[in-house]
Structures are given as structure tokens and as C-alpha cells.
Design brief:
CATH architecture of the largest domain in chain B: 2-Layer Sandwich
Strand order of the largest sheet of chain A: 8-14-15-18-20-19
Largest interface: A-B, 63 and 61 residues
Number of strands of chain B: 14
CATH architecture of the largest domain in chain A: 4-Layer Sandwich
Distance between the termini of chain B: 69 Å
Strand content of chain B: 15-25%
Oligomer: heterodimer
CATH superfamily of the largest domain in chain B: Hen1, N-terminal domain
Number of domains of chain A: 5
Structural class of chain A: alpha/beta
Radius of gyration of chain A: 36 Å
Largest sheet of chain B: 7 strands, antiparallel
Radius of gyration of chain B: 29 Å
CATH class of the largest domain in chain B: Alpha Beta
Strand order of the largest sheet of chain B: 2-3-4-1-5-7-6
Low-confidence stretches of chain B: 69-75, 231-263
Helix content of chain A: 25-40%
Structural class of chain B: alpha/beta
Number of strands of chain A: 36
Shape of chain B: elongated
Amino acid sequence: MTTLQIPQVSLVVLVGTSGSGKSTFAGKHFLPTEVVSSDHCRGLVSDDDNDQSATKDAFDLLHYIVGKRLQRGLLTVVDATNVQPMARRALVALAKEYDVLPTAVVLDPPQAVSVERNALRPDRDFGASVVRRQHDQLRRSLKGLRREGFRNVHVLGSVEEIEAARFERTRLHNDLRHETGPFDVIGDVHGCREELETLLQRLGHDLVRDTHGRSVDAEHPEGRRVIFVGDLVDRGPDSPGVLRLAMGMVEAGHALCVSGNHEAKLARVLGGKKVTVSHGLQETLDQLDNESDEFRRRATAFVDGLIAHYVLDDGRLVVAHAGLKESYHGRASGRVRAFALYGDTSGETDEFGLPVRYPWADDYRGTATVLYGHTPVPEPEWVNNTMCLDTGCVFGGSLTALRYPEREVVQVPAAETYYEPVRPLAPPARDPDVLNLDDVLGPRIIETEHLGRVSLREESAAGAIEVMSRFAIDPARLVYLPPTMSPCDTSPSEEHLEHPVEAFAHFRKVGVTQVICEEKHMGSRAVISVDREAGGVIHTRTGRAFFDDDVSARLLANIAESLTSIGIWDELNTDWILLDAEIMPWSAKAGDLIRDQYAAVGAAARAALPATMSVLETAGARGLDLAELTARTGRRTTDAEAYVAAYRHYVWDVDGVDGIRIAPFQVLATDGSTYEERDHLWHLGVADRLVTQAPALFAPTRRLVVEVDDATSVEAGAAWWSDLTEAGGEGMVVKPLRNLTRGPKGLVQPGVKVRGREYLRIIYGPDYTTPANLSRLRNRNLGHKRSMALREYALGLEALRRVAGGEPTWRVHECVFAILAMESEPVDPRL
Amino acid sequence: MLLTITADQSESLGDASDLGHLLHKHPERVQQFDVFGGSATVFYPEVTPERCSVALVLEIDPIGLVRGRSRNREGFSLAQYVNDRPYAATSLLAVALGKVFRTALGARCDARPELVEAALPLTVEMPAVPGGATLVEQLFAPLGWTVDARPVPLDPTIPAWGDSTYSQVRLTGTLPLHAALNHLYVLIPVLDNGKHYWVGPDEVEKLVRAGSGWLGSHPQRELISRRYLAHQRGMVDEARTRLAELDDSPTGATEDGEFPAPARPLVAQRHDAVLEQVERARPASVVDLGCGQGALLRRLLTMQGVQRVVGTEVSDHALTVAAKRLHVDGMTERQADRLDLWLSSLQYQDDRLRGTGAKGFDVAVLMEVIEHIDASRLPAVSGNIFGFMAPRVVVVTTPNAEHNVLYPQLAAGAMRHPDHRFEWTRQEFATWCSGVGERHDYTVEILPIGSVDPDHGAPTQMAVFTRTDGAA
């Protein structure tokens, strides 16, 4: 029995004359979906499997199907005669295009067998001459198949051989999907043996030394394994020492290593090929001269046998020296190897004479984490789920490892600068303040600390681009947008749509015991960014300037002065501060809305309803039975008055900055810090100090802490809300007291709102409180709103983390833009 | 919502209570009807031989109205839930009227046929009609009504707000009942203007039918028929935007087209002037940055030698309209290959627009675009255009603020369009141009568009930037 080996991802081209038994053979060894047959394709395009006039279209279709399958990484078998070189060339080209290995399997039974089989088939009316011609072509082809590009060629020369053949699907060398880690992935070492030893020890690996005291292996007590991203050698002080350690670890099964471009070059030199010796290779060769022949042989075999990239952990992790774009993951071809070794280069060189590398990671959208080195960067950072671990140890930077799957960075600084970099360590990356359309448009995925990957629909981004471009303030200053907030679950009571009991229950359910009720101010949400020197911006929740320049400047000066008076700058060690606040009155920003929308409805109601009542009374006096209509109209008259009263609470006169009041309730970020883990009493404490300092400008936020497991406390919370709203207040927001909270089921809502019964008239209509209306309105769906609120919260925190960490504008902007885009999604606006 | 119609005894109407026969509604009964959006009740508050008055009370259920339309996501806004529909005399009232008094509207009365065409002294009262007193007067007075329309204050406790857009209306006149009903049936939705969220397209046809006999000679027929258009949603936005692009007048005014268009519209003159400059550069590729609904693209596509035309817009909606107006779906392959419409923003670098040489664009047009950008964002935008995209030639047009004094309808100091962030004098424009030119190595030539006033210059100013290394 012959066992034929084929790679798991490959293109298998069957070659054989008509009647040689290809279809039967394919059906026996492969899934029906894996086999693409020319006869079948002929039938698909012409309704006749044997219509030779459809051959060209049939092969177009066949190539298309094969291409799609290969693109998706599926083993594909082509069932066609393939006896002509041209037919095979097209298939080899397809395999190349998708970077899979082509295998030819030739079925070559005696001609007579094929002729006889054809004769038995009524649909094949061609005679023996056709088979003979095909057989001649096949014969002529046999020798050249490898040259045509087939990596493996299997020839089955008899009926018995064909019958006995079995396939074995082998893993590609780069396929280590079954290796699930945990791993410690180490960046470019470049002969820095000492740093490598220190790093391994810091990672918890125990060094093994030989009799000369040289480290020859390292083993982790918990079985963690190391993956080297390549470039072990060159430039540094002890390339042989690094090789000795790395080889030992790889041989002992304690490490994996992909090839770097320096290993590839070293392999060529050691293999006797002529190369230009530069970029620190000379040092390595000199150092190797001091080693034994045996060591040199071992090293030669090692560097020569290195694989260019690995796919690990069920496809979730890819390691390649210079990184790898998604379509190359797990594929094998010259260009895949070149990409893995040298990166995305075009052959151009920069002003330092070094190859220009395209920032492939900027375009990376894959799900696999890609870890790589090759291009020294000052600090490792996540870019689209990829991280470069080359932090230029040999250039005096540091040696970096990433723990996988923990994603924890571990670093050891270089003991000295061993080699002067040809170009500055930080390659001129993109201008941090310039925004690219690709940062925001198209389907996007943003990696957040608190909620992992948050993805964004393309349509949402398209909707947000207009608002962002036309109305928002300078993106460099627009570093945060507040997330939307969900209301509490709908109250089952007869009276209310929203009631505090549900808010407390919500948090009890997710394991939060202490909550804080904060008065919901009757103003507009604002984000205030203040500089110590009194500059800054005040913007709305969609990123528009809140006030005109003049009012804004005066307010910011006043705010900065108060912040200085309470000593915040030194206390938080910062020159800027970002505050979350509510600015009152609502009419200051929403004056037009209140007038044109709310007051107009009120005016129409107040004109229409009393007139209707009077006509009804006249008719009633005549004895017409209008009791029900009169009662309904009377109730609607009362409702309309209540509605008018509700919006009137939001209107007061403002003249310039006089009359404007600010209620800050959260410190969002300062230089280097964010504050989502400080409890709300701390935040309100800062606000209280501002209120004491400037009571005319700052408004206090009333609050009450509630223990959700304590019935008395819950009752007190509900009573507090009733008092607040019955006096005309908008309602309250209930938040976990400790602020950012992760419960057993994940991130907890940062707050839910409980709006007052009267305020909701503005939202749900004057008559929403009638039982018939309430019962219909109760059926509202909070799921989407909640999920949006959480995602926006995570994006907001991510924006804050990035801005506090001094990251470039585009990194902050993508989060801010995503929040705006999410807000453009259609959700019931009354929630 | 309430409508009352009162008939007084007269020569032609010996017994006022015959109004009941004419309306086919018994004066002693209270009748309720299900109508679109809610229910209508008809009853008679007063029935004597001297005077008879019928009342139509319409109760609208706004929650039900929106629920029925849950599949329609468009206009998903709060205003859909809380609005004047339950109170004001809107198209919903007209729809109810059409159902409840259908026979009377059709001028039929078998019981009192002699009264059908008789002119009767009638009084119509509606407590809250959308639309100002002047418009009510303009619509009803030409039909023989004496109009008493009083504005309803927005909020009596806040006098500073002034009047609302609603009027309390009382119409008196002597005319056949069916004529009165048809007037109401047609003109109430006209007063309500573009807010017909819930009226189906068949209602439009009914309205047009009801206008036969009097609409053709109505002096406001233009306004009336234009507002009919507003019934068909989708057309509203499109029409309005197109009008807004006629930026010779403030859009608040152009919305109702109350100003006559100038003989040779400035828009066309501007297109001619821009195209002349584009042609002079003999470009193979042109990008219209901020192409709006594609008016200029249409003409660029006819220009010989231009192999590639790209329009960019920040509004997805505008691009959709542009594609429709340029008939992209019906283009030949060769035509369609020359044109691209891209969602893009001048605030962001767009790699598709980058570059110099073969990759870059020969000409970029910014026609009436920069004045829509906040002055503080202009440096970033001009860096993006002149530095990043770096086309060989850039043509920029923008209003000349000095010329505004020549527009009588424009308040002093006001700008031509509510979205204009600034309008520059000739000096301000020249300063900006030379600054940009120096920073990015372009030479600049400034030209007027439109008739040049000796003191105030031309209405529009244009700058043609040519890259110093790119002279043709």
C-alpha cells in the first residue's frame, strides 16, 4: 500500500486521461466538497456535463471555485484530465496566488483500461483515439511536472497502485495550531546573551549551564515555553552564546524559534554562499571563529532549519520575524517567507540606505495576534492586535518579552549600547496629529482594556463622519465623549415607568452592594478640558463647541482659577484636567429645542384643549351623551398643563456667563492618570471643593449612598428620589459607589438612570401616564441600549487611558469617533 | 383637535339645522369614527332653526401612530413621539374630514338637493392651526373667506418667547358647504407644510382632486402645489437641499422660494468660471472636493481629455443623491469607469487622494466649500489639500462678503447660508491665498465671478492655485 503525503492546506491536481478513474479515485479519498470537477462545472454552465463547447466557461468557473477555496485555506482537489501543460500552469498559478503548495497525482493505468471504461459509458462517445492522444500528452508531461511548480508529484502507474493508494494529510511545518502555550515570546536578541539570560530568569525560567558555566538550556517549572522571534545573532557581543542557549532550548523542546533575516543570511554564509557581509554579520563570523567545528556545524544546521513563521494556539497566535499579513498566515511560498523575514518591502530604500518597510500592521484586521520583531521601536505597543517586540536591545534599548496569553510585557534594559543604529531607533512613524480616513471609516475593531475588542459597523462610521467633520471641534482637543446611559428596568407599578427599586435590583443582581444615587442635573452634558494656563475647550456630547469662543474663554478662565484655588494641579500632578459635568440651564444649549419643540406642542395643546372642553360642555348641556369624551379631554387638559410645567423647570435666563452653572461630577483624566477606579465620593469631593470655592459658578450634586441589600436603605433611596422628582427634579443616576466595577458576568454598567415621572412627559408625551398608554410603553427593549452603553463606556475609558498616556491623536480619535458612530445607531431615542 | 362649522339662518337656509342633512350626520346623535391615527367624534353643540353648529373632535394616539411605522427607521427621533399632532389642525384632520364628511365633500345631498350648491353663511373655527396669520389670510381670503387669525403665544409665562407658529382661526363666508369642506381638506395640510409623517401617497391624489375648480385660479397655487410635493417624504429633503444650494439668497427664504431667481443664476456663472479654469489646466484627472449633489461633476464628465472624475462628499446622503442625479446606474461601462463618488472628509487624509505625479490628481476643485469649515480647522484642511493631496492645480471659490450689502433681503452682517462659518472680504481671501501658496509652493491668481460692483466687488471670488513645479 502506497501512502501519499499531502499538506493539509494544498491544491491536489489529478492528472490522467479520460477513463483513467480520476472521479472514482477522488470520491474515494476526499470529501465531495473538496473535489472540483471540470465535468461538473461544464454541467453547471451548460446543463450538459459533456458539452465541449462550454469548456472555456467551465474552466473559468473551476478556477474561480478553486481560488475561493484556497483563499479560505481549504484543501482542494481538481478533477480534470490536466494532461496539457497549459491546463496545469493555470492551476499552479492559482496555488501560488494563494500561497499553497500544489501536488500532482498522476493516474496512469494501461491505455486499454481507460478505453474500455469509456466504451462502457454511453455519455462518452469519443473513441480510443482521444484517449491515445491524451495519453501521449501525459507521457510527455511526466518529467517536467516538478519544473512546472508541483512541490510533490505522485505517479500511480497501474490499476493496482491506484487501488492501493492512501493519502496522509500532513501539517505544514509552520502549523503548530495544537501548541497552545503558555508562551513567553522574546524579541530580537542580536547577540545580547547577558540580557537574554536575565530576561529568562525574570520570566521564571531556570538556566541550565554546562561545565564551562555557559548557559545551554532554560526550563520553566510550569512548562512555559519560549518563542524567539528571530534575529538571535549579529551586532551584539555574544552571538554564539545566544545561539548555544537558544539551540539548547529548541532541542530540549523548551523553545521554538522562527528565522530572522539575520539567521537567513548567516545560513547562506555558513552554507558557503557569497553574501555582502554587513550589518553586524562580521562580528558574528569573528565570534564563531572561536568556536569548535562541531558547534559551527550544529549552528549551521540550526539556522538553516528555521521556519519563517508559526501559527499556534488553534490559529490565535502567529509569530513571524517581521510580522505577517493575514492572508499569509499558515501559507507556504517564497513570498510568504520573504514577508516573514523582511517585512512588507518594495525594494525602495530610505535616506539611511535601509529598506523602506510599509506599516502592514496599520492595515491588519485579522483575529490572530501577531507577534514580531525586526523593526526596533522605543516601546512595544498594540497595533491592531499585533505587537513588535524588538525594542532595540543591541542599540541600548531593552530586551522585551510578551507573556502569552497573559499579554503582559516583561523587559530587561540593555547593559550598554553595543551597536550604533543606522537610523534613529524610533522610525519616523506617522505624524501623531494627522488623522487618516482609514482611522475611522470602514468596518473597524478597537482593542479596549476593559471590554476587549469592540467592533464598529461600517454604516455607523459613515453616518458619523459627517457630524465629526462638519460640527466637531479640533480632534486633537476632542479626547473623550461621554457614553450613553441606559434607564433602569421598566417598573411594574401602575404609576411609574421608571422607579429606583429597579435600579437597585439591577446592581444587586450583578453583585454590587453599595451604590450612589446622584441627582440628575437639569442641564446638558458637557466635557470640560482645562489647561493650567486657562486654555481649553468645553464641548457637548457630540463633540460640538458648547459655547461661542468668547463665553467659552471666560468660563474656562473662571474654571481654571477655581481649580488653582483648590490646589488641584499639584495634588494630581498635572497641567491639564478633563472633567465630566452638567451645564445648566438646559435652555442655555437647548433653547431652540425647548421653544420649537416642547413649548410649541404646549402652545397647541393649551389652545386646542380648553376650546374643545368648552364646546363639549355646551353640547353636554343639550343632553348629548359626551361624558366619556369630556372626561378624556379633561384629563388631557391636565396632562398638557403638567407637560408645560415640566419643561418650564429647564428654562432660565442666561446673559453671557452670568446665570450659567456647572455641576462637575467626575474627574476623567489628567496627565498620566485616569480616575475610573476612584470611588464616586472622591470625585464628588473634588466637585464639592469647587462649589465651596465658587458657589455662583459651580452647582453641587446631591447624593445618597444606598446599600442595595438593606431594605431600609433601599426604601430611603426610593423616598429620596420621590422627594427630588416631586419638587420638579429630573431624576437620578445610580452608580456603583466604587466606580469601575467588574462583576461575575463582566463589566458592570457605570450607571443607570431613573427619571422622574413628570420629566418623562417631555420624553413620552403629555398623556403617557394614562394606564392604557403606560401599559403599551412598558414593553420597551433595553437590551441594545445597555450593550451600547457598555461598549461606549469601554471606548470612553480607552480614549482616556490613551490620552492620559500621551498617545498620538489618531489613537485617541479612533475611540472618540467610535463612540460617536455608535451613537448614530438606531435605538429608541426615548431610552 | 377641534373643528367647528356653524351655519346661520339665511334666505338660502331657512332652517339652520338642515346642516345636519347636508353633512349626513344626525344633529341629535353623537357619532364616533375610527380614522387614521385615532378616532373622530361628531356632534352638534348647538341646533336651532337660527343657528346650527357641528363639531369634529379628533383624538390622536401618538404612540399608536409611531408603533404602526416601526419598520420605517427614517426620522427616528424624539419629535416623532412628542409632537403637535394630537392638538393642532394638521393633515390628520384633513384625512379625518375626508372620511367623516365624504358625501358632503362630494357635493351630494339627496334629502336637500337644492341646498348643495346654495351659498350659505358659514363660520369655521379651529383653535390651533399651524402657520402664521398671514399665510392663513393668503390661503383663505382669495376663496371668499373673511379671515380672523390670531397668533397663539408660545408660553404666556415667558413673554420674551413671543408667539408660537400656531393661530387661532375663525373663517366666515357665504359659500356652498361642499366648497368650504374642500377648501379645508386641501388647505389644512398646506398650512401643516412638510410634517406629514403619516399620510400615505394616495392622500395626495385625493387632495389634488379636491382642489379641482378653484385651485387653478388661486393666486397661491404655486405655494400650494409645492407644499403638496412635501407629502412625498424623501422628496422633501432632496428638494430642500437643492434649494439650499442656490445660495444667492439665505436658505431660510429660498425654502419657500419667495425671492425671484436672478436672470443668469450665479450658480451657473460659477460653474462656467470654474470649468474654464479646469479646462485651462488640461487635466487628465479632476477631483471635486465637496461635490454635493454632483452638479459640477456632470459637466466635468463631458470635458474632453478628462479620464478620471472623482467627487468626494462628507455626506453619504448627498452621494446617494448625486449618483441618482448623474444616472450612474444607467451609464455605459466606459462612462462609469471615469467616475468615482467617494465618502471622504477634508479633515482626514484620504490615501485615495494622495500623491503627486501619475498617482495624484491634476486638478482639485473646492467650490463653495471652505466657508463651511470652521476657521480654526482651515489650516489642517489646507495642509491636507495642498500638502498631502498636492494636486497640480486647485480651484477655490467662496463668497465675497463685501458684496452682501447688495442683497436687500439679507440682514446687515448676516451670512448667505446658515451653515457658513465665515464669509471673507476680498482682502481676507487674498491673505489666506497667499499664505497657503507660500506654505505649500503654489502660485495663486484671484478672479471675480459674477457681475463686478465697482465698490463691493463680485458676488463670488475664485482663486486658482498652481503648484510651482507643476506648471502645464
